[in-house]
Design brief:
The chain is α/β, with parallel strands linked by helices. It has ten helices and twelve strands. β11, α10 and β12 form a beta-alpha-beta unit. The C terminus is likely disordered.
């Protein structure tokens, strides 16, 4: 049976639940009822599993089992409709999960039109982060701990329930771009993807995972049967600049990262996404753009450009929109699709790089 967090059912697979029901001398279909109730029906407590016999529910409760959904401690709502959730787990630790209605405001469409309402959920994989990107507010927290697979999935279930989402009628995209580096919590991230696909019913084609460049895990990720789309946080056009902004480059240089990107097996019509946070006067020059062109030469890739989102204690500035557009045009003229990500929830510290469990909202200009 997979590891669980203090006897919490969320995070257990169908096979885990089957073994549990066998241990309680229950017929096999009880495992399916549990699995369905946990992930598809989003039942918040064992009392709500009315398809299960009362005696079984009591046995599970007495054995210390609970569903394990995080508690929504606070909600912050932006003027653009984005909602930042502060989620609390059993041990008191908190992370943020972000709801962005009508898409994430930056990715281009996939070419298909849907009559369903669209939304994106940005989910965290760790409490804090160890990567220490100098332009990111999450780095100020440091790494406190990894999240379990159940805690990763639980964030999504809590948001879906709070937003009253009908998973069959609304198109939900997931981006593993919240607090933490998913590839430094790889096993729990992978297990959460399996549960989201098989249990919740969100296909991996609607998921994107972002890594700062954990090179060995990119190769591991390529081998997965259920594989979300891959985004790589580039944020610099040369090693000297990347070492300054992202100390992780000291271990995995741009040469190693780009070699891993070139070896990554892309599916038909799939592109690698590279994310590039533009910092005024630091990495946003025409020369930087030309260096990015050389880095991506020959790759089937696209670039998401993100004008830096300001935050307290971070000594950078947001580039002028004209500078962002000039950077984009250099990439586009070289045949590289480049998209300027519209910030979502900046006023509530929900935008890219702003997640730091902020509870007191102040003007950041």
């Amino acid at each position: 049976m997979a590891e669980n967090n203090n006897s919490e059912l969320l995070g257990l697979s169908f096979q885990d639940l089957t073994e549990m029901m066998e241990a309680h001398a229950q017929p096999g279909y009880r495992a399916r009822q549990l699995f369905q109730g946990l992930y598809r029906e989003r039942k918040p407590s064992l009392d709500d599993f009315t398809t299960l016999p009362l005696a079984l529910r009591q046995q599970l409760s007495m054995a210390g089992w609970s569903v394990g959904l995080p508690v929504i401690q606070k909600r912050f709502t932006s003027t653009d409709g984005t909602v930042r959730y502060l989620m609390q787990f059993r041990d008191g630790q908190t992370v943020e999960t972000v709801w962005m209605p009508e898409g994430d405001g930056g990715e281009e469409g996939d070419g298909s039109e849907s009559s369903y309402e669209r939304a994106t959920i940005c989910v965290s994989s760790q409490v804090g982060c160890a990567v220490d990107c100098h332009f990111c507010m999450t780095a100020l927290l440091g790494l406190l701990r990894n999240l379990t697979a159940g805690e990763i999935v639980g964030q999504i279930l809590a948001v879906l329930s709070d937003q009253r989402v009908d998973i069959d009628q609304q198109r939900i995209n997931l981006v593993f771009m919240g607090q933490g580096e998913p590839f430094l919590n790889f096993d729990n991230f992978v297990r959460s993807v399996d549960l989201l696909v098989e249990g919740v019913g969100i296909p991996e084609s609607r998921m994107t995972v972002s890594t700062s460049g954990i090179v060995p895990r990119i190769a591991d990720f390529a081998k997965l049967k259920l594989r979300p789309k891959l985004a790589i946080s580039l944020n610099a056009s040369n090693d000297a600049s990347r070492r300054e902004l992202m100390p992780i480059t000291k271990k995995w240089t741009l040469e190693k990262l780009m070699a891993a990107a070139r070896e990554f097996p892309l599916r038909p019509r799939e592109r690698l996404t590279f994310e590039y946070v533009l910092l005024g006067g630091v990495n946003d020059s025409d020369e930087n753009a030309r260096e990015v062109v050389q880095l991506l030469k020959g790759l089937r890739a696209k670039v998401n450009l993100i004008a830096w989102n300001p935050g307290p204690e971070i000594p950078y500035s947001t580039p002028d929109p004209a500078r962002v557009e000039a950077f984009q045009q250099i990439l586009m003229r070289a045949g590289i699709p480049a998209f300027i990500r519209k910030p979502r929830g900046r006023d509530i510290f929900a935008a890219c790089g702003q997640l730091k469990r902020t509870t007191e909202l102040v003007s950041i200009g």
